[in-house]
Amino acid sequence: MKARATETQRKTRIQKENEARILDAALESFSAHGFRGATIDQIADHAGMSKPNLLYYFRRKQDIYEALIARLLDTWLEPLRELNPAGDPLPELRSYIRRKLEMARDFPRESRLFANEILQGAPRIKRLLESDLKPLVDEKAEVLRGWMKAGQINSVDPRHLIFSIWSTTQHYADFDAQVQVVLGPDRGAEGRFEDAARYLETLFLDGLRPQVKPDSGPRVRSF
Hints:
Blueprint: H1 13-37, H2 40-47, H3 51-57, H4 61-81, H5 89-106, H6 108-119, H7 126-149, H8 158-174, H9 176-187, H10 192-208
Helix pairs in contact: 1-2, 1-4, 1-6, 4-7, 5-8, 5-10, 6-8, 8-10
């Protein structure tokens, strides 16, 4: 859904700044109260704007929410977009795991907001998942499949590999309070993300690294 202020004219710098203010304020409200609990008045108050001024940019709460999720999803998918088909598979996947974990560290509210929407069945963003997320996952699944067929990584279901990376990295955003309690004060500080990165690299990369000898040829399983 486009912001209302952009429907008939090119956005000015002020309009861009105000839209960003509204979406930042909306993140605060939606992450704290959910879609149903958040109100236009709350968002306007957080943004430091009048309600009529906010409604110049977005007609409905639904429009603000969709724009926020679209922005979030675009950010969330950027590391996957950067997975380079011409690169060395294991370093490419290491970089992807690291970037996803950095996002869990740096954007915990966004992660929880997205997770809550998915847990509800994605009623307000299913169209975005179909138009933005699925084609990219399909494209990168083919990249992974190509690496597997070339014997560069072990053969697994590529989509489930992507799901597994999502779930393990995002855990450190969605369940960070639990992680810190379980790890305790000695290991639950900032270094927990580096510890998690080393563990996930071992988990995924050792599992994907081919173990066969070069002269025996890779064993390829089709998915």
